[in-house]
Design a protein that fits this description.
Length: 490
């Protein structure tokens, strides 16, 4: 990023997004309602009560979420509306909301704890469901015993969900038609096609991960299951020490039940899950299967690759009403965790690399001033939780811009040297050189070790620049999958 472009972005952030008067209104139903009259009329017809208020709430990713209050209804009931944004066909997600609705219906028939769904809009990607009691912020639990109890209950719930037979009353769009290996191949190929046809071009790390996934694909002799995808902390609701519902089945598909343990490991890195190794064994016992750690290692590479791929497809997009300020931090985390998962699965240790020598510039004070204004003059005056979340995303963006400025030309020069070592030629244009690396990975020109030497350096440098914005995420890593020799929790 050039300095001029950096300051254009900074000025944009300071003059638009951070203004509390621009916070999205969370209004009663009326002229300022965030929903169209058509959607409100549909909700009222399905619920049998007038809508009194609609509140925009954080929904995760690109999906839109709204809490809906009704007149004359049981005040403890409440409704939740999930919608895809208008540009949901951009390609970074399959059309998951309609499938998710049918997954909820199927799992509920077998007594699985999922949100009760009421209606699916006939023409718009919108799903109406009942409010689920409890909270989703697993990290907010302060008591260790309660945290462990919730984790154990979640593992039991997940195993029970995986025991639902996908061949019996199949979910529309998830009809089983072969082995775990066949469904896994289709899952990888489907995401590879979205990546190859995406608007942001190829990426060396994703190419490397794709080749690894295809070359190491397991073929287990286990029962086929409805896999949640992206399962773990943040995607289940709990009340006290009990899980009330497993939510967000947007990435659901058919596959190996142990695949969800890879997704759980991925999410546990960003929202710590106590004694993961013990929880995995408890899950396997509940499922009635021997714990296959090699499969879990493969599937956490798959999970990290998929999340990194989604982040790549969304990068340089989603301006305006989006989670971009927060999302890019998690994208960087999962790119690093991807290469760490690859190394761990191959029994390798990534080398320690020297950090970037950051130094203040004559512009550092501008970033510090903007951050102070956010912290002191903006966030304390925001009553809208969604606006607070957006403001924190802006602060993360400012921290990243500040560190990119303080890094100077060192990251570019170090990457240039690594590219020259890999390509064996002088490098001028880094973008062109990265494309040549992609071609080389596809043609298998270099050893895995040579590829990873460059990929690890590039990922490490990006992690360093993003470090201040990442906060505690900067030093998060994947948990061990086995307990230590003394038998204690890992």
């Amino acid at each position: 990023m050039t300095l001029d472009r950096s300051f254009v972005i900074l000025i944009y952030l300071m003059t638009t997004t951070t203004d509390p008067s621009q916070a999205r209104p969370l209004a009663e139903h009326g002229p300022d309602s965030p929903l169209s009259a058509e959607i409100v009329a549909w909700i009222e017809a399905e619920a049998g009560h007038p809508v009194t208020s609609v509140t925009r709430v954080a929904a995760g990713g690109r999906r839109l979420g709204f809490a809906v209050d009704l007149a004359g209804a049981d005040s403890t009931r409440g409704l939740y509306l999930a919608m895809e944004p208008g540009d949901a066909t951009a390609g970074d997600r399959p059309s998951g909301l309609r499938r998710e609705f049918h997954v909820y219906q199927r799992l509920a028939r077998d007594g699985i704890r999922v949100p009760p769904v009421l209606a699916l809009h006939p023409t718009i990607d919108a799903m109406l469901m009942e409010h689920v009691p409890g909270h989703a912020r697993y990290g907010s639990i302060g008591d260790t015993a309660t945290k462990v109890a919730v984790a154990r209950d979640f593992m039991a719930c997940l195993a029970t969900a995986h025991l639902v037979d996908p061949w019996d009353d199949p979910v529309p769009g998830l009809e089983p038609h072969g082995s775990i290996r066949r469904h896994l191949t289709e899952f990888v190929d489907g995401w590879a096609e979205r990546y190859r046809s995406g608007r942001n071009g190829p990426d060396p790390l994703l190419e490397h991960g794709l080749r690894w996934l295809r070359s190491r694909m397991p073929d287990p002799d286990r029962r086929l299951a409805i896999v949640q995808g992206d399962t773990g902390p943040g995607n289940f609701m709990f009340d006290g020490d009990r899980v009330t519902a497993i939510v967000d089945w947007e990435l659901s598909h058919l596959g190996d039940p142990f695949e969800d343990l890879g997704w759980l490991s991925m999410r546990a890195a960003q929202d710590p899950f106590p004694d993961l190794a013990l929880r995995l064994q408890e899950y396997a016992d509940a499922l009635g299967e021997e714990l296959d750690l090699d499969a879990v290692r493969y599937y956490r590479v798959l999970a990290e690759w998929t999340i990194a791929l989604i982040g790549h497809l969304k990068s340089r997009a989603g301006l305006g009403d989006s989670e971009r300020g927060n999302a890019f931090v998690f994208e960087q985390l999962h790119r690093r965790l991807l290469i760490e998962a690859l190394a761990e699965a191959d029994g390798e240790t990534l080398p320690d690399l020297p950090g970037i020598r950051f130094a203040d510039t004559d512009r550092t004070w501008v970033y510090d001033m903007a951050l102070d204004q956010q912290r002191v003059s903006v966030v304390p005056h925001l009553d809208d939780p969604l606006a607070v979340r957006r403001a924190k995303g802006v602060a993360r963006t400012l921290k990243w811009l500040k560190q990119a400025d303080r890094a100077g030309g060192e990251p570019v020069e170090r990457e240039r040297q690594a590219l020259q070592a890999l390509l064996g030629t002088a490098v001028g244009d880094l973008t062109a050189a990265r494309l040549e690396v992609v071609r080389g990975i596809r043609e298998d020109r270099w050893s895995k070790a040579d590829q990873r030497a460059y990929l690890w350096l590039k990922t490490w440098l990006d992690n360093e620049v993003c470090g201040e914005a990442m906060g505690r995420l900067r030093d998060r890593h994947l948990d061990p999958l086995t307990q230590p020799a003394d038998g204690g929790a890992s």
